[in-house]
Amino acid sequence: MEAINREAYGAAADKLAEFSAGADAQRISAVADEVLAVADLLRREPRLRRALADPARPADERAELIRSILSGKVSDETTGLLAALVGGRWSGPGALLDGTERLGVDALLAGADRAGDLADVEDELFRFGQVVSGDPRLASAMADSTAPAGARGELVGDLLKGKAKAATLRLAQLAVAGFGGRGFDASLARLVELAASRRDRSVAYVTSAVALTDAEEERLAARLKELYGRGVSLKIDVDPRIIGGMRVKVGSDLYDGTVARRLAEARTALAK
């Protein structure tokens, strides 16, 4: 988020944290669903988005507008969260939509956290991405922005129902719909990172030619924790095509110690 939008989001995020501290997982998840339903409304109604993000309108007026629209339709907690959100100063209607969607995601993660499911949700999202990327037809279907988002969401439901946490299913459906205006792969990666961040962890995407032993994973996690100053959640993909060695990506940092990279460098040097 831009600085101006982070500030606008802050009041709603603080309010969500206060609410989540005193509510059970079911109640938090219900509020998350309501916030995401409002995000869908804003996506369908550009005039409403513009009115709620209009900096020429006083913050109290914008907050009162959302309250009048939602009165009797959602819980008081949801109304209060969204009133705080629209009361902020946003850079534009699209940023407000992204902020509303992010608030729903943060509420979903808070509910999973309260239920003790957050680590599972993070891992399930990553493994779902692996399943999709390993099937070209499935990957094409998920990334097809010309297909109705509802149909793709139903496909996600068919794939995950009964096999993953409810929060995982809902977040995967958001990914296929294009969370934050991203493509499917980028949306899913961002959601994994948000889940890890809530656990005060960074995400390390590890590609290895062979499966790592438990001891090797522990050593790698410890080294990365030392390097980044916080816990690191390893997301490991086994790819024999790299021949040997390992590739590790944390945020924008890439550490590539694969045999494939060294061979490519050698070929380049010989060709000069």
UniProtKB/TrEMBL annotation:
Membrane-topology descriptor: Peripheral membrane protein
Pfam families (alphabetical): OSCP
Localization of this protein: Cell membrane; Membrane
Keyword flag Nucleotide-binding: no
PROSITE patterns: ATPASE_DELTA (PS00389)
NCBIfam families listed in its UniProt record: PRK13430.1 (NF009967)
Gene this chain is encoded by: atpH
Any one GO MF annotation of this record: proton-transporting ATP synthase activity, rotational mechanism
Family that this chain belongs to: Belongs to the ATPase delta chain family.
Gene Ontology CC annotation, any one: plasma membrane
Gene3D superfamilies cross-referenced by the UniProt entry: N-terminal domain of the delta subunit of the F1F0-ATP synthase (1.10.520.20)
Functional note: F(1)F(0) ATP synthase produces ATP from ADP in the presence of a proton or sodium gradient. F-type ATPases consist of two structural domains, F(1) containing the extramembraneous catalytic core and F(0) containing the membrane proton channel, linked together by a central stalk and a peripheral stalk. During catalysis, ATP synthesis in the catalytic domain of F(1) is coupled via a rotary mechanism of the central stalk subunits to proton translocation.
The name this protein goes by in its record: ATP synthase subunit delta
Coiled-coil blocks: none
Main location: membrane
Key words, A-Z: ATP synthesis, Cell membrane, CF(1), Hydrogen ion transport, Ion transport, Membrane, Transport
